[in-house]
Fold this protein.
Amino acid sequence: MSNGIIAADPVRSAFREYYFKRAEMIEPPSDIEKREFGYMQFGGRGMARHLSFRTTGELIATLITQVPSDVYCSNALYRFPTLPMQEKQWLGADLIFDIDGKDLHLPCVSSHSYHCCASCGHVSAPSEDEYSVCNVCGSNKDERIVIPCGKCIEGSKREAMRLHEFLMTDLGIDKLNIHIYFSGNNGFHFHIQDDSYRPLDSQARSDLVGYLMGIGLLVESIGIRKSPGSDNSFVKFPKSGLQAGWRRRVADKLRIDTTSAMRLTNIVKEIGGYSAFKSELEKMTRELGVRIDPQVTTDIHRVFRMPGTLNSKSGLAKVKVRDIESFDGFSDACLLGDAKVKVKLKVPAKVRLRGENYNISKETAELPAYAATYFICKGLALAI
Ligand SMILES: [Zn+2]
Ligand SMILES: [Zn+2]
């Protein structure tokens, strides 16, 4: 490895150093030999897929020599992981969930979104005004670059805690089998290590997602019955009560229990009858449910970012989260080295990493590798 290479691509060398020095961070999956791996290269197009490793050592050696920009591993187990998909022989897949900050549609996001013009590459700083066109070339196509703010982080943490609660109380999954990871950018990944979920097909996982997202709860299940031939209703509480799962959530929200038939009848009347209550309940359960990416969970052939590897959208690592509340991705997952790297900023930019504010308004700056990498990976700076 010559010094020339280091100077030419500080991000890649920071990644290489990480895989070399922090190999203990890599968390290989169980049954490693039955997994399909894939990775992306810096500057390369497309993903190398259908790879397989027999041991963790073999995997780490590849990370150090290839220095991928992103590393993925199948949640599925296959008899023949390197063969084409139809011939792999699917043996089951771990249950996974993805919470992505961008799916939360928080109102703060536009106030800290940079815009990168898709035709000329000009980057503009966040502003109060709605972004419409590039003020250099006039193109209206742009890519949004988001540096999550405190509220975004709190938002995805809240969502993660809600999912955690659902998995333990509603699905009865043992806390020890729920592995939570910071995605390395702006969200959380949940890996469930419970063999009983492995055989589930895509449809069963989709039903699970529907349940967690609060889709399709029947008004009847909380005791509302439609009166025949009208939009009126009457109350007949389920025999099993309102103590568990969605029934409990809705009952808590409406502040009812099985002795409050009168109160519930009045609530339905006030809202405007059976149909109006039905759509109100739909809205309520969507709000109380978890915002997860349904595709990630239902795709049983997916390769998913591997724990312990770096995310090229940020230079942060996908790391295990032991306590969601106290977790700070900008510190706990910021694991690159601190050798000085010179960068040219495309726009004034700021981020707080490892407890330190990097508020760069000058055009060039010399920053520790982890901060330089963050800005470069975000597309807000170039190495010089
Ligand atoms: Zn432009
Ligand atoms: Zn925000």
Q: What stands out?
A: Residues 117, 119-120, 122, 134, 136-137, 139 surround zinc ion (ligand 1) (CB under 6 Å). The radius of gyration is 24 Å. Confidence is low (pLDDT under 50) at residues 1-7. The CA atoms of residues 250 and 284 lie 8 Å apart.
